[in-house]
Amino acid sequence: MRSGGTFAKAVLSAAILMAGPAIGLAQELPQYLASGKTFSSDWRACVGFVDGNAPVCSYTLYRSGNYGYEFSCIFVDFKPVIDASGTGEVWGHIATANCGDDSGVSRPDVFILSFYENQITVTSQNDYLYDLLRQREDVDGQNCCSVNMQFEMCRLD
User: Fold this and answer.
1) Within its chain, how far is the Cα of 82 from the centroid?
2) For residue range 47-75, what is the model confidence (pLDDT) as tens digits?
3) Contact 107, 96 (CB under 8 A)
4) Cβ contacts of residue 150 below 8 Å, gap of 6+?
5) How far apart are CA 33 and CA 19, in angstroms?
6) pLDDT band, very low/low/confident/very high, at 144 (cuts 50, 70, 90)
């Protein structure tokens, strides 16, 4: 019985070692995020949520993830979406993320990110499905879902 446990540890160790390089390569940032720029769904969120001026349903997008008031998604992996016609043009990126809010519950999500003229369009798979089932609105009647949400590059200089 002891040798079975040793074999299982050896198999697990080999799997971890083989996955290591693949995990590191899969996390290459898209160029528009690698620059370190900040993007926001509302210009008031560019300065942050601390001063209370940012609307509740606004988000910021950095190289590390998507952040809102009492909410965040940390990017785990990126995959390019490449034009199928053979040109090799990258049309966007699929990002997997670990998301959570102030409740302490974490959940996976998948985002599609498309960059064009200093703007990123983002759709969350979870929010898209949620939006199909039930329209989610805040007190001002604004849709808080990340479905085709536009993020403009913050200009803080």
Assistant:
1) 19
2) 765 566 677 778 889 899 998 878 889 99
3) no
4) 41, 119, 120, 121
5) 25
6) low
